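Form 12-C: Joint structure prediction
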Amino acid sequence: MPATQSHSSSGLSYPLDQALNKGLVWQAAQQPCSSASVISSGYQQLNRELPQGGWQAGQVCEIYPHRYGCGDMHILLPVLATLSHQQQWIMMVAPPAIPYAPALTMAGIDTRRLLMVHPKDRKEALWCVEEGLRSGHCSAVMGWLPESDPNSIRRIQLACEASKNFCWLWPDARHQNSASAAPLRLQVTRISAEQANLRFIKRRGRWPGNAFSLSLNSATRTG
Amino acid sequence: MNAWLYLYFPDMYLHSLVHDYHSPVIVITQDQQRVVQVSAAAKQCGIRPDMPLASALFLCPEVVCHTLNQEYAEQLLQQRALWAYRYSAQIFPDPADGLWLEAGSMLRLFGGIEAFVNTLKDGCQQHQWPLQYGLGLTPVSARWQALADVQTLSLNTAQQQHALQTLPLDKLHLNDAQLLALQRLGIQHLGELLQLPLAETGRRICPQLMQQLQQLHGQQKPPSSLFTPPLKFSEKVIFSHDAEHRNGLFFPLARLLDSLCGFLHHHQLSVRWLALRLLHREPPETRWLFSFANHEYRYEELLQLCRYQLDKQSLRAPVTELQLSVTQFTSRQHEQASCLATDDQTPLSGSLINRLQARLSASQVSVLQSTGDPRPEASWQAQPADESVTDSLSRTGDWPIWLLPEPVPYPPPADIIQGPLRITSGWWDSWMTRRDYYQVMQDEQLLWVFRDDQKRWFLHGYFS
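Section 2 - Result
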């Protein structure tokens, strides 16, 4: 979408201003030059597709897996391995099942850094994600929020931006087609045991792009 | 240099009661005969200290009366002494609502007498404690100047002399007999009294006054004993109006926590739990124990943790008194890491876990511990987050990322990608396992299913 800087003299100029002020219109010219840290995803192909050439701190990424077990966690393993060697927690809020320690260790993740939180309800879950981001003691926060709404995602994005942490969310699949404040939205489906199909529904700073398939075994350890 | 600072807290007992500043409140003697301390609102009604209680009630029938509890009054002074302990190493509590602080050795640290006094004044202001102070070369001189509220900020001998000469005698808390004797002689200021020969004063007026006059220029130690802070923290707040909601407890608690933090700072200690005692009008009292996953000593953190914990509680009845006590402490862990230590040895921050556990419950926060057992169910453990986890070696292989808490019965799969992987183990305990694990592709999911030795199929995890 090109920048809409020219103000037309017609009566439409006011609503447009309003829309700009509310941040409803994305303007390429106002792209924030990011100084936040970027970590390689471990997959060359995915790096090419990610706006900054890797996962970027301070940007919430929404992940919409087609179903459980379609490789959505697999693509995060290399970045989690890198992050787990920092002296900070990796927080998992309401994980859908038990993270299987041997698999994580095999991927190079230091499981001692994983902090699992099992909130009772939606309110607690959102609080945990925000608290984890704001505390400054987490390198990454992952949240499975089946009952989230666009407003809570916006809050989380603000917290994430302020704290410059990594954050991945698994929101309600119904929101997949509605607007969201998250800069990155990724859809994952599995094609075969080694192949997953990825598609960015939204990428801040780039066009959404087409689906591409990723070989799940092609990860290189980023160290 | 010899220098003493005397802090006088006027109406300390009255100000320690949590009350509404617009309502008239008085403190009366233990035998409930006379008025001792009077709030500003009560003063407007015409109530004066030393008035009989009956007259006070006549002047203002709706006045709130508190009986002076001597034990609590002493405790209050101890609290103030504890607070003052961060400003001076030598503190001598004076039973009459005051503290002597040795100031001479503190001047260099605070950068001069003015800075020292201002720091103390700011501290008092934060707590909203009315304060009168006096600075003198001897303890008695400091005390008298404080009582007369002469704010001399100089240790110059001439200026000190001048300040003492002009002190009005009726403000020095002398007893009635002494004052009367002095009045008969027509003496109103300390300067006039000092001109008389000391021995005559002792004989004609009062030997105690003579002693004090001697101490005014001579003695260098206050007449009370040195304050040593106890290694047990217990302080309380009495409410003048009952607190009916837990929010009403928060501000008094913040004050207690501030005091606790001063205590912790001085001793270089930290706490893992706080005991709160809430008194109601009817006997069974409420006791809350706020425990934390990790040791804490910072005010902001403790405040936040208490806020979360308070949010979870509900009051059984209105509260009349709140007490905070801590009897177990741990010394602070030294946070400096050794130059040679690797990243692995520096501990992870515990304050996040503290906060999570304060808001949720301890069982909702956990860390993973791998045990090295080959059986999937036994290969991991959820440890409470406050316990340290050791790293154990893991078996290589192709493992699923998600494990279901319980295996779920599953129809025999069609599209087997990989397998079998036989896991036979557990002969040493009663829970023997013999299973063949397969990777199965179904509906775009890669599943981890197994067949047990009775040929039943179960789903046990997802490759995600």
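Section 3 - Comments
Confidence is low (pLDDT under 50) at residues 341-346 of chain B. The first helix of chain B runs from residue 12 to 16.
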